[in-house]
Design goal:
Purple Acid Phosphatase, chain A, domain 2; six-stranded mixed β-sheet; 13 strands; 26% helix; binds fe (ii) ion
Length: 259
């Protein structure tokens, strides 16, 4: 099976890039399952019902989120209505929505999950490592392949998660930092790992946002309103190939297209 994960879609430019490139990428890489991180898809912060529909219409099977999950009010009900829209699984118990789903692809049951790191992020969620352990225990026997979008800031926490799940996950792919890393590899136990898949959206920006505002904030240390940048765009993604017997990875390939 071939799984495509597209990194943090940022605002309208990101959605346009998705519309222009996703169908072609799915065809050329013979993709069976597409996961898209959409936590910045609505104006850079969060997700709305119409933006979610737009991403699904582009070809996403599962949409993951992160620290901006609840930035838009509508996300609360949307998460409860859409089982394939995932928020980090390590939110405190009682949070709306779900951190995982099981989808059928290439004749196998794929468990897709979203978790969030705790290092250098302004939220104190439950332990993502123990959270994933609990999920795998709870879902044992119900899935053939496991794929995790680990939304985290610190490379150390992400790499630790990759090794922690080596041999248990087909893929551990990082999101959130918006810069694609070059460390894609299949770990010895059979887990495809990439510290960060990168951002889909405006490329002449600071992490997707208008660069003048960001630079101004660094210079002045005053609050500034950030808006999604305009201009040239990029799409960042990764393809993970798995084998049917153990449901683990045989290959991993980064994709980065800049206009
Ligand atoms: Fe994020």
């Amino acid at each position: 099976m071939r799984i495509l994960m597209v990194g943090d879609v940022c605002g309208r430019p990101g959605r346009q890039m998705l519309r222009e490139h996703l169908p072609k990428l799915r065809r050329t890489h013979r993709i069976d399952l597409t996961i898209v991180n959409g936590e910045n898809a609505a104006g850079g912060f969060g997700i709305t019902p119409s933006v979610y529909e737009e991403i699904v219409a582009c070809g996403a099977d599962v949409v993951t989120l992160g620290n901006h999950t609840f930035d838009k009010r509508e996300a609360m009900t949307l998460l409860d209505e859409e089982p394939r829209l995932l928020r980090p699984l390590n939110y405190p118990a009682g949070a709306p929505g779900q951190g995982h789903c099981i989808v059928q692809a290439a004749g196998q049951r794929v468990l897709v999950a979203n978790a969030m790191g705790r290092v250098f992020l302004p939220m104190d969620l439950d332990c993502p490592f123990r959270g994933v352990d609990a999920l795998l225990e709870q879902q044992a026997g119900r899935y053939d392949v496991f794929f995790l979008d680990f939304h985290a800031e610190a490379t150390s926490e992400k790499e630790a998660m990759g090794w922690y799940l080596d041999g248990r996950a087909a893929g551990v792919v990082g999101t959130h930092t918006h810069i694609q890393t070059a460390d894609d590899r299949v770990l010895p136990g059979g887990t495809a790992y990439l510290t960060d898949v990168g951002m889909t959206g405006p490329s002449e920006s600071v992490l997707g946002m208008d660069r003048a505002a960001v630079i101004g904030r660094f210079l002045s240390q005053l609050p500034a309103r950030f808006e999604v940048a305009e201009g040239k765009r990029q799409i960042s993604a990764v393809v993970v190939e798995t084998e049917p017997e153990r449901g683990l990875a045989t290959e991993v390939q980064r994709i980065f297209i800049r206009e």
